[in-house]
Structure formats: structure tokens, C-alpha cells
TrEMBL record:
CDD domains linked to this entry: AdoMet_MTases
Gene Ontology BP term (one): methylation
Keyword Methyltransferase: yes
Keywords attached to this entry: Methyltransferase, Transferase
Protein name: Class I SAM-dependent methyltransferase
């Protein structure tokens, strides 16, 4: 899968739809979770499936430290080239056994975000189950993914997100329609799942 994303990395940030998605995800994060985190500081953040780091860029001024991970080395190279002071960018697979020994993942996170990433993984429930233990008690897990339309369509349903969050042990889980992306005559809904460890 990462080879496919590598091919898009160089021009990824030039796509206005990609930028709009990151803008809307960040706005919905502030709207729906800001007060729960406190004092406009998101503390220690894990950006899962960070791509070129568009969401990390937005989080950087209001976060203590961001660990941004992706399986695409080309996407990570683009993020590293941005030289964001409080962002550690790593090309890692969260399923790899060696990942648990990475020093950057050794301390718990206050917030884990996954923006348009989890619908692309081969085993969504397993990945959520691997991510949640990286949160501190009371930490927040937030994801954004396309609403699946019809049987076999791409994306996730509210029920799938709720079930994965519940299975991973998250409490106070809610799934909402965060925003709509319009383009080429279509309107696509983006779901936002939020849960507390």
C-alpha cells in the first residue's frame, strides 16, 4: 500500500481538496474536543497515517509534541522537509513488532488522531486496538473517515466505528457527521469518531 502513497507524496500538499479536508478535520477537532483536552493545548499527540503532515502542521502550535507516523516513506520525507520543531516524523507500521520498542512511542499520548487513514488499513479493528493502549488514561482517540455508502462501498459506517472503539475499550464513544466534502458533482460525508480511554 505504501508504494501507492509514495507516488502521490510530492504533489499531495498542492491538492486543494486535501488541504480543505485537513482544515475541516482540525476545525471539527477544536469544536468537538477542545474543552475536553483543556487550555487549548493538546499535549502529546500521535498523528496516525499522517501523510505529509497537513493535520500535524495545524496541531503543532497547540500541541506540546507530535509523533507523526505513516507507512509511506515519501510522505514522511515531505513532512520532515517542513522542519516543524515539535513534530517527530517516523515511517513505521503500527503492526510491526519492533514498533512497540520505539522511544517516541514509549510515553502515553494525550490525543491520538487518524485523519482519513483507518479506512485504508487491512484490519481496521485490530489497528484501533493497537492504538488505544498508547493513550494515557483519560486521553482522547479521534478519527475521521469517509462514510461508507452502500454494501461494499469504500469507507466506514457509524456502526463499524462504534464497534471498533468499544472493542478497544474506549468510553464515551460518539460518532458524528463532521463535515461534507464536495467535488466533481458529488458530496461525500466524513464521519468523526471520538472516544476516551
Amino acid at each position: 500500500m505504501s508504494g501507492t502513497w509514495d507516488e502521490h507524496a510530492r504533489d499531495w500538499d498542492d491538492n486543494p481538496d486535501v488541504r480543505a479536508y485537513a482544515d475541516k478535520a482540525f476545525a471539527s477537532l477544536k469544536e468537538h474536543t477542545g474543552p475536553a483536552i483543556g487550555a487549548n493545548r493538546y499535549g502529546r499527540v500521535l498523528d496516525f497515517g499522517c501523510g505529509t503532515g497537513l493535520l500535524s502542521e495545524k496541531l503543532a502550535p497547540v500541541a506540546g509534541q507530535i509523533v507523526a507516523i505513516d507507512t509511506s516513506s515519501a510522505m514522511i520525507d515531505v513532512l520532515k522537509s517542513k522542519s516543524i520543531e515539535n513534530v517527530i516524523a517516523l515511517c513505521v507500521d503500527i503492526d510491526a513488532p519492533s514498533t512497540v520498542n520505539l522511544p517516541a512511542l514509549g510515553q502515553p499520548f494525550d490525543l491520538i488522531v487518524a485523519s482519513s487513514a483507518l479506512a485504508f488499513v487491512p484490519d481496521y479493528r485490530t489497528i484501533v486496538g493497537n492504538l488505544v493502549p498508547l493513550l494515557r488514561e483519560g486521553g482522547l482517540f479521534v478519527q475521521w473517515d469517509w462514510l461508507k455508502s452502500g454494501d461494499g462501498g469504500f469507507g466506514l459506517t457509524s456502526a463499524e466505528i462504534s464497534a471498533a472503539c468499544k472493542d478497544a475499550g474506549l468510553a464515551d464513544t460518539r460518532v458524528l457527521e463532521a463535515f461534507v466534502m464536495e467535488g466533481m458533482g458529488d458530496a461525500m460525508t466524513v464521519l468523526m469518531g471520538v472516544g476516551t480511554r
